[in-house]
Amino acid sequence: MYRFLLSRQWVILTLVALLLIPTMIRLGIWQMHRYEERTARNQLVSNALSAEPVPVEKMTSPGHVITTDERYHNVTAKGRFDTDHEVVVRRRTNSDDEVGYHVLTPFVLDDGKVLLVNRGWIPSDGPSQTAFPKIPAPARGETTVTGRLMPDETTAASGIKNVKGLPDRQVMLINSEQEARRLGAEVLGGYIAQTAPEPKGDTPELVGRPGNEDAALNYAYAIQWWLFAAGVPVGWVVLVRREQRDRREAEAGQRDAEEPEPAAV
After folding, report:
1. Residue 140 contacts by C-beta under 8 Å, 6 or more apart in sequence?
2. Which of 34, 105, 110, 173 could form a disulfide with 218 if both were Cys (CB 3.0 to 4.6 A apart)?
3. What is the Cβ-side half-sphere exposure of residue 152, based on CA atoms within 13 angstroms?
4. What is the pLDDT of residues 5-36, one digit of tens each?
5. What is the spatial distance between Cα 94 and Cα 123, in angstroms, rounded to a whole number?
6. pLDDT above 80 for 177
């Protein structure tokens, strides 16, 4: 009755089904791991954003590499902005995906160390891409700034190529080691995305809060793969029964055709 399962076609079909089942199960497990990783990262970011601000020098120091646990933590710093050594970071977008610059201003702390402050986004609507744009001035004199602690940008992490030969006072990446060499000063590792005080006239436009990764999508994909894995044997059984039924009908039709007609009287 099931001898057809030994045919080449059905052997191949069965082997493919047996291969698909563990493959889909493993894909579901991988998606579930991605869901757990993204959920953990979302919780880490949420904890950092909701934490009370601490003095920046409790979180970083010259040469320090900002860790995942420290990223986005709110910090404060007291000092003054050094606009004479301000630079702009090229090819940055705002919340409307408009291309412009991020304004990177050294912030000199009371002890002489320097903190890099990303003051926000400005449009690139100057006369040319080579001219230094007009930038709104920050608060003058001694002030206190608050911001989210961020790690140094690298090409490997950001995908942004660190182009050489840029116009004066323009950079591609925010990197404390690079800025320490340019400034000839002790620069704290990483930088902060300023959140307070808010700029006058809403410019530069402050960098927005980080959004959550879509962990629920990975969870849905995991369930989907497991449903596919469960559907493979069900589909295989359905095909076997259909093949068996078709063969029975074909055999019955053949027997009917071979039966001799009754002799005429």
Report:
1. 80, 81
2. 34
3. 20
4. 788 888 998 999 999 999 999 999 999 999 99
5. 9
6. yes
